[in-house]
Design goal:
mainly beta, seven-stranded mixed β-sheet, four-stranded antiparallel β-sheet, 0% helix, 61% strand
C-alpha cells in the first residue's frame, strides 16, 4: 500500500509563490504517474498537473506557464512549484499517485492513491 504525505500549503498574497511536496511511502513495486488535483469550495475536484515516470508533464490551461510539476524518483516525491498565484488558485490541493503494488498476494497494476490534502489560500 501507498501513503502520500503532502506539505507546503499556506497563505500567500496574489502574485506570490508556494511549493508543494508530496512523498510516497509504504510498500509498492513502482510509482507511476503522479499528479496534483485541487478542489475549491463548491466546485468539483480538478486536475492541476501530472507527470509520468519518465517526466512527461501535462497542465491544466489555467495554470500553464505559472505552475511547474516535477518529481524526484529517488525520493518518490512530486513537487508543484506555484508562481504568480491568483485569488482563484485558492483550494485544497491533493496529491495523487498511481502505483503497482502487491497486497495479499494479489498484484494491482496502476492502483490509485490520494493524499489528505493541503490548503492553499491566496488572499491580500
Amino acid at each position: 500500500q501507498v501513503q502520500l504525505v503532502e506539505s507546503g500549503g499556506g497563505l500567500v498574497q496574489p502574485g506570490g509563490s508556494l511549493r508543494l511536496s508530496c512523498a510516497a511511502t509504504g510498500s509498492f513495486l513502482s510509482i507511476n504517474t503522479m499528479a496534483w488535483y485541487r478542489q475549491a469550495p463548491g466546485k468539483q475536484r480538478e486536475l492541476v498537473a501530472d507527470i509520468t515516470s519518465d517526466d512527461s508533464t501535462n497542465y491544466a490551461g489555467s495554470v500553464k506557464g505559472r505552475f511547474t510539476i516535477s518529481r524526484d524518483n529517488s525520493k518518490n516525491t512530486v513537487y508543484l512549484q506555484m508562481n504568480s498565484l491568483k485569488l482563484e488558485d485558492t483550494a485544497v490541493y491533493y496529491c495523487n499517485s498511481h502505483a503497482d503494488v502487491v497486497s495479499g498476494g494479489i498484484f494491482y497494476r496502476d492502483d490509485a492513491y490520494w493524499g489528505q490534502g493541503t490548503q492553499v489560500t491566496v488572499s491580500s
